[in-house]
C-alpha cells in the first residue's frame, strides 16, 4: 500500500492560523484505488476553493493499486486516526469506508445513473454491425463494475441485443478475456467502469487492441489514451465536486444535509485514430453528435 501525506489549507483561518493558535488541524482521509489523477483532482478542487498547501488541513492519502481487499484495512486505519472526513473515490472505497464507520462523514462521487449504462449499450449497438454480438467486460470484485453489469440486464431487453460477458478480476486476466470475446464473434464491447480498470487503463486498451476489439469506455480519458468511444461525465468532474463537499463539511455542514448532485452533463468522445488502427467504421450519425473528436 502506497502512503503519502499531503498538507492542504484554507478553511477560513489566516494562512498560519492553526500553527499559530496551536489548534488541531482538521484531517481528511482520501481512500482510492491506484488512480493518481483522481486524488490530484481532489487537491485541485480544494485549491480552487482557496486552499493552500501546508496550512490548516492535513490530508492522508491511501491508494491500494487495484487491490480491493486492502480498502477495508485502509478505512479502518482512518478510523483509528480519527480523521474528520473521508473522501472515498469509487463504490468499493465508499463501501469500505461506510463499513468501517458511521461516525465519520464519508464523501463519495455520485453513483452511476442506470440510464448512463443503457446509453453506453445503445451507443455500442449503433456503432457495431446489425445483429452483431455485443461484449461486456466487468469485474465482480468492483462494486461499481458489478452494479453497472446488473443494470445491463434490464437495458439489454429493451435494446434487443445479444450479449457475451467476460469477468476480469485481475490485470493478468485481460488478455484471456479479450481473446475469449474475439473468438466468440463479438464485434464491439462495453467496459463496465471499475477502479481496477481505471488504475490499469493503458493495459486494458492494449489488450483490446491486440485482439482488434473496438469498445465503449466510461470517460474521455479512455478515448484520449486510445479508446474508440467513450461516454460519461467530463473527466474528474466528480473529484472536483467532492472537494466542495469536504469544504462544506469542515465548515460545519452535516453530511446528511448535503444534497446528492449528479453530473450536469455527459460527453461523447470519438477517437478517429483508434478507428483506423482497429479497422472500424464510425457511423456518421455518431460523428455528428460527438462532443469531441480526436483525430
Descriptive overview:
The chain is of the alpha/beta class and 295 residues long. The chain has 2 domains: 130 residues, Response regulator (Rossmann fold); 149 residues, Rossmann fold, CATH 3.40.50.2300. The chain has 13 helices and 12 strands. It has a 7-stranded mixed beta sheet, sandwiched between helices. Strands 1-3-2-4-5 form a 5-stranded mixed beta sheet, sandwiched between helices. The longest helix has 17 residues. The protein is elongated and about 65 Å long. 44% of the residues are buried. The N terminus is likely disordered.
Descriptive key words:
alpha/beta; 295 residues; 12 strands; disordered N terminus; five-stranded mixed beta sheet; elongated; Rossmann fold
Task: Write the SSE topology.
Blueprint: E1 2-8, H1 17-21, E2 27-32, H2 36-48, E3 57-63, H3 69-81, E4 85-89, H4 91-100, E5 106-107, H5 114-127, E6 133-138, H6 143-159, E7 162-167, H7 174-184, E8 186-191, H8 195-199, H9 201-210, E9 215-217, H10 220-224, E10 229-232, H11 237-250, E11 267-271, H12 272-278, H13 284-289, E12 292-294
Parallel strand pairs: 2-3, 2-4, 4-5, 6-7, 6-8, 8-9, 9-10, 11-12
Antiparallel strand pairs: 1-3, 10-11
Amino acid at each position: 500500500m502506497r502512503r503519502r501525506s499531503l498538507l492542504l489549507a484554507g478553511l477560513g483561518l489566516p494562512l498560519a492560523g492553526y500553527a499559530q493558535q496551536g489548534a488541531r488541524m482538521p484531517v481528511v482521509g482520501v481512500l482510492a484505488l491506484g488512480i493518481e489523477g483522481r486524488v490530484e483532482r481532489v487537491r485541485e478542487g480544494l485549491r480552487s476553493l482557496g486552499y493552500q498547501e501546508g496550512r490548516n488541513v492535513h490530508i492522508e492519502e491511501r491508494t491500494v493499486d487495484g487491490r480491493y481487499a486492502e480498502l477495508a484495512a485502509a478505512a479502518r486505519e482512518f478510523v483509528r486516526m480519527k480523521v474528520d472526513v473521508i473522501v472515498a473515490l469509487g463504490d468499493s472505497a465508499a463501501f469500505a469506508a461506510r463499513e468501517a464507520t458511521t461516525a465519520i462523514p464519508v464523501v463519495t462521487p455520485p453513483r452511476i445513473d442506470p440510464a448512463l449504462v443503457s446509453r453506453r449499450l445503445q451507443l455500442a449497438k449503433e456503432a457495431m454491425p446489425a445483429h452483431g454480438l455485443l461484449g461486456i467486460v466487468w469485474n465482480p470484485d468492483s462494486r461499481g463494475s458489478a452494479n453497472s453489469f446488473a443494470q445491463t440486464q434490464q437495458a439489454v431487453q429493451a435494446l434487443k441485443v445479444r450479449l457475451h460477458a467476460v469477468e476480469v478480476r485481475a490485470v493478468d486476466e485481460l488478455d484471456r478475456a479479450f481473446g475469449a470475446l474475439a473468438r466468440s464473434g463479438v464485434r464491439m464491447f462495453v467496459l463496465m467502469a471499475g477502479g481496477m480498470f481505471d488504475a490499469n487503463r493503458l493495459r486494458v486498451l492494449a489488450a483490446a487492441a491486440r485482439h482488434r476489439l473496438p469498445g465503449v469506455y466510461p470517460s474521455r480519458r479512455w478515448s484520449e489514451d486510445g479508446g474508440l468511444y467513450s461516454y460519461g461525465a467530463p473527466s474528474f468532474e466528480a473529484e472536483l465536486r467532492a472537494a466542495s463537499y469536504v469544504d462544506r463539511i469542515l465548515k460545519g455542514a452535516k453530511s446528511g444535509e448535503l444534497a446528492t448532485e449528479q453530473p450536469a452533463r455527459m460527453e461523447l468522445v470519438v477517437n478517429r485514430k483508434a478507428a483506423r488502427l482497429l479497422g472500424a467504421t464510425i457511423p456518421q450519425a455518431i460523428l455528428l453528435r460527438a462532443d469531441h473528436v480526436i483525430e
